[in-house]
Amino acid sequence: MSEAVLFERRDEEYLPTELAGSPWHPAMLHGGAPAALMAYGLEQAVANPALQPTRLTIDLVRPIPKAPLRMSTRNLRTGKRIVLQEITLSADDKPVAIATGLFIQPHPVTVPDYAPRHPLPLPAPDTLQDVSFRDVLFSGKDGMPPGLHTTIQMRPASGLREQGQGAAWLRLPANILADTANSPFMLAALTSDFSNGVGQLSLGNNQGTINADISLQLLRLPQPGWIGIDARTWLQDNGLAMVQAQLYDGVGLIGQVTQSAMPMLEYSR
């Protein structure tokens, strides 16, 4: 197990390391790190391996600080085939993110020949080269604080020119939580936040967009290894944007992501 981790656990608190940091501010976390932590919390609360996570919706209600975090869960619905769970992430007793997770019991079926198919549109990750997010999206800026953006491994599958569309494979060479193996759901949640980065739309003058939420839907859990993102950002002249992305593993489509985004005028919400 890797010694590199995003969070250490101390009693009921989760302590972020510098690997969980954000490129936007040295005192804040990258959205992918708390997304993965909340996915872990939901899995622990549901605690039923017969149920598969199929939807994770996260509202990032405040910038998440690089500070001790606590999680609390609440069961919203338990049925014969579904469980709906809510989780709140707090810092200094203030909610910073609220999420719901929908878990469904799979039931095998025969997929008819006429059903739509979604072939893998990305070149295989082992045919591509590693590139740093720092170099692609931040022009190799000096003095940028380390964080998840410098920890994640990335292999672009298209040109990432900050023109509102892009595709890349991502892999995390670290543990999300100390002494805990990364689950496929945790990795999918972490990767989903990068949709805005892969599909980043520059507005000029070093101004881009930042997402205020994450909605991840999963057809199935990803296989071990790289997770691919194919993302688009749609921006209106009112300053509101929508990010849409498909997620892949080496076999094919695993799910999709949508995000609400806005111009980053300053680091505040």
Architecture overview:
- The structure is a single chain.
- This protein is mainly β.
- The protein has a single domain, classed as Porin, CATH 2.40.160.210.
- 14% of the residues lie in helices and 37% in strands.
- The protein is built from 5 helices and 14 strands.
- The protein has helices spanning 32-46, 133-137, 148-151, 184-192, 195-198, and strands spanning 5-10, 13-16, 52-59, 70-78, 82-91, 94-104, 153-156, 165-171, 175-177, 209-211, 213-218, 227-235, 241-248, 253-263.
- The strands form 2 sheets. Strands 3, 4, 5, 6, 7, 8, 10, 11, 12, 13 and 14 form an 11-stranded antiparallel sheet that branches. A 3-stranded mixed sheet has the order 2-1-9, with helices on one face.
- A hairpin with an 8-residue loop joins β7 (153-156) and β8 (165-171).
- The protein is globular and about 55 Å long.
- The N and C termini lie far apart (37 Å).
Based on the model shown, name its key terms.
single chain, 269 residues, mainly beta, Porin, eleven-stranded antiparallel β-sheet, three-stranded mixed β-sheet, 5 helices, 14 strands, 14% helix, globular
